[in-house]
């Protein structure tokens, strides 16, 4: 079992994030010492924490992460990841279009300046 400080270092999740994840039932400690209220995590918690770190990198919301974690079979994970991927592809397309529009604007602006 790992104390919060150890677990934080192992997972890269801050103590505040671990506290928040516990409050939201996303990643609860496996044991809380009744005497000193220290929270402890285990190896299973570590695997979930690493998954959560990756999901955050993929811009998952807390609710989306809860859906994944509560689905112990991870049956919906692929579908959720696919939707996230599609959203990112759409954002990239929109940004590329915006870049093209800016390039066109610069080109038009330069042509207009040369006519003066």
From TrEMBL:
SMART domains: HTH_MERR. GO terms for molecular function: DNA binding; DNA-binding transcription factor activity. The keyword Repressor applies. Keywords: DNA-binding, Repressor, Transcription, Transcription regulation. Residues 1-71 form the HTH merR-type domain. This is MerR family transcriptional regulator.
């Amino acid at each position: 079992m790992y104390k919060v400080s150890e677990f934080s270092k192992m997972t890269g999740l801050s103590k505040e994030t671990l506290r928040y994840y516990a409050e939201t039932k996303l990643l609860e400690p496996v044991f809380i010492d009744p005497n000193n209220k220290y929270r402890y995590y285990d190896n299973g918690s570590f695997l979930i924490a690493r998954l959560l770190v990756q999901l955050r990198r993929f811009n998952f919301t807390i609710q989306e992460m809860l859906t994944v974690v509560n689905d112990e079979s991870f049956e919906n994970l692929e579908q959720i990841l696919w939707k996230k991927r599609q959203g990112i592809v759409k954002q990239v397309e929109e940004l590329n279009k915006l870049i093209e529009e800016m390039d066109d604007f610069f080109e038009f602006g330069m042509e207009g300046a040369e006519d003066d």
